[in-house]
Amino acid sequence: MRKIIIEVKNLVKRYGDFEAVKGISFEVEEGEIFGLLGPNGAGKSTSLEIMETLRFKTSGEVIIDGFCLDKEPEKIKRIIGVQLQTSGFYPGLKLTELIDLFNGLYNEKVDALSLLKTVNLEDKAESRYKSLSGGQKQRFSIATTLINHPKIIFLDEPTTGLDPQARRNLWELIKSIRDKGTTVIITTHYMDEAEILCDRVAIMDEGRIIALDSPGNMIDKLLSRGFERVREVKGASLEDVFIQLTGHAMRDE
Ligand code: ADP
Ligand code: MG
After folding, report:
1. Is residue 43 in contact with ligand 1, taking CB distance under 6 Å?
2. Cα→Cα distances 50→26, 46, 226, Å
3. CB 188 within 8 Å of CB 35
4. Atom 24 of ligand 1 has which residue's CA nearest to it?
5. What's the 13 CA to ligand 1 centre distance in angstroms?
6. Which of 21, 209, 240, 248 could form a disulfide with 43 if both were Cys (CB 3.0 to 4.6 A apart)?
7. Which ligand lies nearest the alpha carbon of 38?
């Protein structure tokens, strides 16, 4: 059993009379890619932002790498990487200038070029943020989560709106970050992505976790209840056709 790096117990979040998160509990192991899935409004972002210390909880307990959210939020901030919405960057600044800005914010001295290299953006170092494609913007925003050498990074729908090539490219990036030892918490609406990327997923609906397991176990459980797909499954998907025809190469370079 690996070390538990995130522990959430009976987490509740109320917005006025509305209970958006209704007492969820789960644990995340160090070094795993943990997915939070669920329809819009399920409470994923709210839960994430509470763990990120960006939003106050109503009740419950959150412990991150041994630090209690109530008592030591500053210590938690130091060991996590939070992805800003892409609209959060100054559009007119060059990537190197934005990294310097983050260096100042975190009191770090990360070398901009080598950081950009880890996300395959070294050629764009002197480009302005606004000139990047959607996939490049996402890669850049993931790079900025790494500036303080975090133990855990939180990614809220990092692949929404990307084309299939950019999406696959981002999967490789996220896996490589995890392979270096960083724990990843990610939300996504793409089930193929969760199946490929996540070690375990929690499915949320209306503020509750209704299932939590590895994607493989969840599928096996469904099948063991007698579930059968109505349509015959082909050995390839339309996305496979798309990638075969258009290639794996990124188009936004
Ligand atoms: P998800 O990320 O799963 O789509 P959210 O956590 O963003 O869900 O939202 C969960 C529920 O809480 C939604 O019904 C949403 O409308 C509501 N909600 C989110 N933020 C606020 C807020 N600041 N004030 C009031 N209601 C909110
Ligand atoms: Mg959300």
Report:
1. yes
2. 14, 6, 38
3. yes
4. 15
5. 10
6. 21
7. 1
Handedness of CA 187, 192, 196, 199 (dihedral sign): positive
Which ligand is located closest to the Cα atom of residue 155? Answer: 2
What does the alpha-carbon distance between residue 224 and residue 45 come to, in Å, rounded to a whole number?
Answer: 32
Contact 38, 204 (CB under 8 A): yes
161/208 Cα distance (integer angstroms): 26
Structure tokens at 58: 């109503």
* Helix (H), strand (E) at residue 103: helix 95-106
Q: How is residue 169 written in tokens?
A: 């490219």
CA angle 101, 34, 111 (to 5 degrees): 25
Contact criterion met (CB below 8 Å) for 65 and 79? yes
Q: How many residues does the chain have?
A: 253
pLDDT digits (tens, 9 = 90+) for 48-69: 999 999 999 999 999 999 999 9
H/E segment holding residue 161: none
Can you tell me the distance from the alpha carbon of 7 to that of 11, in angstroms, rounded to the nearest whole number?
Answer: 10
The model's pLDDT over 68-123, given as tens digits with 9 standing for 90+, comes to: 999 999 999 999 999 877 667 899 999 999 999 999 988 999 999 999 999 999 99
Q: Specify which residues 63 forms β-bridges with.
A: 7, 68
Strand order in the sheet with 33-37: 80-82, 152-156, 183-187, 33-37, 200-205, 208-213
